[in-house]
Specification:
By secondary structure, the protein is α/β, with parallel strands linked by helices. Helix content is 28%, strand content 24%. α6 (256-265) crosses α7 (269-292) and α16 packs across α17. The relative contact order is 0.10. The chain binds FE2/S2 (inorganic) cluster (FES). FE2/S2 (inorganic) cluster (FES) binds next to loops.
Length: 644
């Protein structure tokens, strides 16, 4: 999919442009307006609606990467909907097609359109973004620091060169030719006084006056879906602002594989994805500096932690090899890049530190998490788990650190779940099933679907009641064990061989359909949790650690922080250990990025941990497939019901 066809993005609230005056067509370009935002864009005929939406800043959900198979990008075309594509007819109900719904990824624009975008089809602002990093104290000694200087004036008795004079005060510093070109004039214009900005022993900039109290850095958790940035004062270590955004790369597909495919299939794919990430970072920096009331050129350093694909794309390194056997990453050690070369609007001399990586799918965010959790400092076995489309697992057993990733699939993010959605307004995020069903919905909205946490809750409670058996089958009413409450029995609907369980009846739901847990959803959950469970099992075997001996399970990342521990354990996603040994540690990647930003020792520590951690490639482990097959079966019981 090329972005070339879309030419101009106009926001309803933006300044008038000549193109806004000319109606629905400009030459061959066609106007598409998205509601309720009111944003319009002019595109060439044949441009796919999904692409037009992206250009208008309307980010639609695309878990299948625009292949027309997930149905999550559906929008309603007001007035004259075009003939539906085969994919739209295949995925949407006849009623939806009749009402004008179409799949945005399979609908070309051939005439002016007004498009109604349902909330559940967008990544909207109510997406749950985990910004909290649970905090940590650190001795502030950033790599970038400032020193006030005052040099003796040159004289016939002291005719030393300018650089010699500066080095006599600042030590054995490196100075780039670019800065050398400015240095002599600066010193003379400022009476041989000023502030030196240093990164290690490298002179980054010279500033007039005493600016030793002004200097900021940004720590970024660059996730595939969400991006969180935090602004820090590099002198005091104080946090001065937090900003987050949806990663606009979701327009190219929800998961890293879709984005890698985009790079492989499009000549300008890497550049487009990189530009999209840079634009997002610039927006976040803008937000942060305005929160703190500072200028962007006071930001001297950016530290960034993301998965291997996100990091490589930001660096402009082709991620294609991450998408094919033998899954090779471009680098292991941390990368230092120039912010201005990347197009980041901060101080021209600022550097961007990109975290070291352990393996193709165990990236910088995991290294940052290991740093934050101090995983090498526990004297008992500790398991670090970050669950998303990939489950990253690190086992610390004394000095031994083992790390792996397992393809959990997108079920936990609501994708491939029949009525699944991300954790946005309208998503059922919590389910409690006892005598009847209680649900909690995000935002002040009727339920429109269920997100990953609700999927786990529902499956766990239905296992406890006996409505789901350990093979994952939802039992029809006539096969239920004795004692199931009448209210629950009445929620079972059986058609053919398949039974589904109604979580919210149609009259309570946002659309005209009841929200259900479908048999296929349980299968997807078994695949996702089985992959993580098998990954954990292989790691424990490698280290010779019994599950009982696990002292702590540290749950990191957004999903881990919203799940109910007892339910995650009931479905087998987490080991059978007491709930008080399972801890949430917040956004560990963000905390790791902060630590490295504020302390050069932490930077060295990150490098040491990357080197110390052994990468386990599960695809090469002969026992993984067997373990995976076994892990698809739900545990028959749970050890206790801990408080979540
Ligand atoms: S169906 Fe359109 S993105 Fe999946």
């Amino acid at each position: 999919m090329s972005m070339e066809n879309a030419h101009l993005c106009l926001d309803a609230g933006c300044a008038i442009n000549a193109r806004t005056l000319g109606g629905d067509m400009h030459g061959h370009e066609i106007k598409v307006t998205f509601q309720p935002s009111g944003r319009s864009v002019y595109v060439l005929p044949g441009t796919v609606l999904l692409e037009a939406a992206g250009r208008a800043g309307v980010i639609l959900q695309t878990p299948c990467g625009g292949k027309g198979t997930c149905g999550k990008c559906r929008v309603r075309l007001v007035d004259t909907p075009p003939v539906p594509s085969a994919a739209s007819v295949g995925i949407l109900s006849p009623k939806q097609v009749e009402e004008g719904y179409r799949l945005a990824c399979c609908t070309p624009v051939d005439a002016p359109l007004v498009v109604d975008v349902p909330a559940e089809s967008t990544f909207e602002s109510q997406q749950q973004i985990l910004t909290d990093d649970s905090g940590a104290d650190v001795e502030v000694s950033p790599l970038v620091h400032k020193r006030r200087f005052e040099l003796p004036l040159p004289s016939s008795e002291d005719p030393r060169a300018d650089l010699v004079r500066l080095r006599a005060i600042l030590g054995d510093i490196d100075v780039s030719p670019e800065l050398m070109r400015l240095m002599s004039a600066f010193l003379r214009a400022n009476e041989w006084k000023g502030t030196a900005v240093l990164s290690n022993n490298h002179l980054v900039a010279l500033e007039a006056g005493d600016t030793t109290d002004d200097g900021y850095g940004v720590a970024v958790d660059l996730g595939s879906t969400t991006v969180v940035g935090k602004l820090f004062d590099l002198v005091s270590g104080r946090e001065c602002g937090v900003a987050s955004a949806i990663n606009p790369q979701v327009t190219f597909g929800d998961d890293v594989i879709s984005r890698i495919m985009h790079v492989r299939e499009n000549d300008d794919g890497l550049a487009a994805l990189q530009a999209s990430a840079v634009e997002c970072l610039n927006t976040i920096v803008d937000d942060l500096v305005s929160q703190a009331g500072i200028r962007a050129d006071e930001v001297y350093e950016i530290v960034l932690a993301g998965n291997s694909t996100m990091q490589q794309i930001l660096c402009g390194y082709d991620p294609s090899a991450l998408g094919e056997v033998p899954f090779v990453q471009a680098f292991e050690q941390a990368q230092i890049l120039s912010a201005s070369d990347l197009g980041l609007k901060v101080n021209d001399a600022a550097e961007v530190y990109v975290f070291p990586q352990i393996g193709s799918f165990v990236g910088g965010d995991t290294v940052a998490g290991i740093v934050a959790a101090r995983l090498d400092r526990w004297d008992k076995p500790v398991l670090f788990v970050d669950i998303g489309t990939n489950g990253e697992i690190v086992l610390a057993n004394g000095d031994q650190l083992l790390a792996t990733s397992t393809a959990a699939g997108p079920a936990f993010e609501g994708a491939r779940i029949r009525q699944g959605m991300r954790a946005t307004a309208g998503a059922i995020e919590k389910v409690i099933i006892r005598e009847d069903v209680d649900i909690n919905v995000i935002g002040d909205a009727p339920p429109a679907g269920l997100c990953g946490t609700a999927l786990i809750d529902a499956a766990a409670d239905l296992l406890r009641t006996g409505i789901i058996d350990e093979t994952g089958r939802i039992l029809p009413a006539d096969e239920l064990p004795a004692g199931i409450p009448e209210a629950l029995q009445s929620r079972l609907i059986t058609e053919g061989n398949e039974t589904r369980f109604v979580l919210a009846p149609a009259e309570d739901a946002a659309g005209d359909e009841a929200i259900c847990l479908w048999q296929k959803d349980v299968r997807e959950l078994q695949l996702a949790s089985g992959a993580v469970r098998a990954g954990i099992q292989i790691m424990l075997q490698r280290a010779g650690v019994e599950p009982d001996a696990i002292h702590r399970v540290l749950l990191a990342g957004a999903f881990g922080n919203f799940i109910r521990r007892s339910n995650a354990r009931r479905i087998g996603l987490l080991p059978q250990i007491p709930g008080d040994r399972i801890r949430f540690i917040g956004n560990a990647a963000s905390l790791g990025a902060k630590l490295v930003l504020l302390s050069d020792r932490e930077r060295a520590y990150a490098a040491q941990l990357q080197e110390q951690t052994e990468h386990i490639d599960l695809s090469l482990d002969p026992e993984f497939q067997m373990a995976f097959g076994m892990a698809m079966i739900f545990p028959t019981s749970d050890i206790d019901a801990c408080e979540d």
